[in-house]
Design goal:
Layout (H helix, E strand, L loop, with lengths): L2 H20 L4 H10 L4 H25 L5 H22 L5 H20 L1 H6 L10 H17 L4 H12 L4 H25 L5 H25 L1 H21 L2
């Protein structure tokens, strides 16, 4: 790999690690970059997950040290996403992704509605510890998020944030901590499918991982310092850019 490509992947990794930790959809940058250096789309999709894995290790450790991460709840919510991620990874190896990209873009724009009209829920969360929880619905929601995460990864952070705020009752900062931890738990399972299928480039993946980890470290500290208000506006900006890109520029 040329020096130019190494530097490109490193810089892209930093940017994506930052975006993914604060919101999601950073893979909309890293996937095209990996294909630009010559990787097949399926290989790029698998390789990208190496960076995602290391990024989530760094950000989860940071949130845990700052006492912002609920490990027990994270494991509980990760279980259905693991099953979904394996299913999604097998599906993506067989199907074209354009139709899914359009659906994802539309859903992202729909997500903006509660962020503006139910903003207090996003900023402060809602105590659901004593509420009657619809467990089948919760399991289904996180299973479907896992399917999408296994399918293409790009944008899964947005879906996880929405599920954690609207279904599980967390504010955005705590939801961010759980989001990266859940991502950390299910990513190895989806990555394993790509490894078994021979759809990864280890060198490119490790270079991307270095960049992703750096971006994740910066973003996790920023999320804690700036608070839920800052994260909310950052998520809105990412949804607008990512949704527009998927609809009109893919």
């Amino acid at each position: 790999m040329s020096i130019e490509n190494i530097l490109l992947i490193l810089v892209v990794g930093v940017v994506c690690g930052f975006i993914n930790t604060l919101a999601g959809s950073g893979s909309l940058i890293s996937l095209p970059a990996l294909m630009f250096i010559g990787l097949d789309p399926h290989v790029a999709n698998g390789t990208n997950r190496i960076g995602i894995l290391f990024q989530n290790i760094v950000s989860s450790a940071t949130f845990y040290r700052k006492k912002m991460l609920d490990i027990k709840t994270g494991f509980y919510l990760a279980l259905p996403t693991i099953l979904g991620s394996v299913a999604g990874a097998f599906i993506v190896l067989e199907l074209p992704s354009r139709a899914v990209e359009i659906v994802v873009a539309v859903v992202m724009f729909i997500m903006l509605i509660p962020m503006f009209f139910n903003s207090n829920r996003w900023l402060n969360g809602k105590d659901l510890s004593l509420a009657k929880i619809n467990y089948p619905l919760r399991i289904t929601v996180f299973f479907l998020v896992g399917v999408y995460g296994g399918f293409i990864q790009a944008g899964v952070g947005i879906f996880l944030l929405s599920a954690l705020v609207m279904n599980a009752g967390y504010d955005l900062v705590k939801a961010n901590a759980l989001k990266v931890f859940i991502n950390l738990i299910f990513t190895p399972f989806a990555l394993g499918v790509f490894i078994i299928s021979g759809k990864i480039d280890l060198v490119a993946g490790l270079i991307l991982a270095v960049g992703n980890s750096g971006g994740a470290y910066i973003a996790s500290h920023m999320a804690i310092k700036k608070g839920a208000g800052f994260v909310r506006y950052f998520v809105v900006a990412v949804i607008l850019v990512a949704g527009t890109y998927l609809l009109f520029f893919k």
